[in-house]
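[step 3/7] inverse_fold.run input=structure_tokens len=274
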């Protein structure tokens, strides 16, 4: 499904594609999940490079910001339950809180990429992919981690929300976490992932893949919206084009994830095409 534009507004439909690439990975979700309409935001803030090598501009009012505020309230309620269970596991009345705490505590025992990988794999294995239509009878619903674990199923943004919260509770700084809505250039569908920063580099946690890939090495994803400490922001600015060893920035290698050692350059043609 392609994006369309009307005067002074933009609209994007988000889908979770069905393919997955890693061996033993949990498959991603199929089906439409939400519609977004928002005023065109101001010029991106210079110097703040977000995941996938893009600048961002804040969106102050839109259905997407309202949806994120709603799920934030649900997350806060989850965190109260989780805190109570952490204080007294023997009297924890929420199996889902106990399950989520197990993931968080295992991740806390590790650091760096190992911490990211534990959360990515555990959440991928804990949730089966299913559309909001099948689960809730509605086109789109963003669920908190405990609600998703209680259902045992969810779509791509439900995986991403659970990972986003788990990483934060496991000790990853909020400033190093983003929930990113991307356009998959291969499937022409939209998808949600988490980006986590380590040593200045963003790694992508994806329900399509058990492995962690660096953001700028994933050719198929084009970021559209970023959610983090600054709230909901629209991805803006130039795109980092991938330069092959032959020096051609328009023809990346055929693999979904390219070697991270390749050089990168700004490509105005690619930027104007998106």
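[step 3/7] decode complete -> sequence:
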């Amino acid at each position: 499904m392609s994006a369309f534009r009307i005067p002074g507004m933009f609209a994007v439909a988000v889908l979770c594609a069905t393919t997955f690439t890693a061996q033993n990975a949990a498959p991603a979700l199929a089906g439409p999940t939400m519609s977004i309409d928002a005023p065109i935001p101001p010029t991106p803030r210079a110097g703040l490079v977000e995941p996938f090598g893009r600048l961002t501009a804040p969106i102050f009012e839109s259905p997407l910001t309202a949806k994120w505020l709603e799920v934030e309230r649900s997350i806060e309620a989850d965190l109260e339950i989780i805190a109570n269970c952490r204080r007294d596991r023997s009297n924890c009345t929420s199996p889902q809180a106990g399950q989520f705490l197990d993931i968080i505590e295992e991740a806390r025992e590790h650091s760096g990429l190992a911490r990211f990988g534990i959360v990515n794999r555990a959440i991928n294995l804990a949730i089966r992919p299913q559309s909001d239509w099948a689960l809730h009878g509605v086109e789109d619903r963003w669920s908190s981690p405990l609600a998703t674990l209680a259902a045992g199923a969810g779509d791509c943004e439900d995986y991403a929300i659970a990972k986003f919260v788990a990483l934060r509770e496991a000790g990853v700084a909020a400033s190093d976490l983003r929930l990113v809505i991307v356009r998959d250039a291969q499937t022409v569908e939209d998808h949600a992932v988490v980006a986590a920063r380590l040593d200045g580099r963003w790694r992508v946690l994806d329900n399509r893949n058990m492995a962690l890939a660096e953001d700028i090495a994933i050719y198929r994803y084009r970021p559209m919206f970023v959610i983090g400490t600054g709230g909901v922001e629209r991805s803006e600015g130039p795109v980092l084009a991938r330069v092959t060893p032959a020096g051609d920035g328009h023809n990346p290698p055929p693999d979904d994830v390219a070697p991270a050692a390749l050089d990168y350059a700004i490509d105005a043609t690619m930027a104007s095409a998106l």
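[step 4/7] annotate
The first strand starts at residue 4 and ends at 6.
Residues 1-13, 18-48, 240-274 have pLDDT under 50 and may be disordered.
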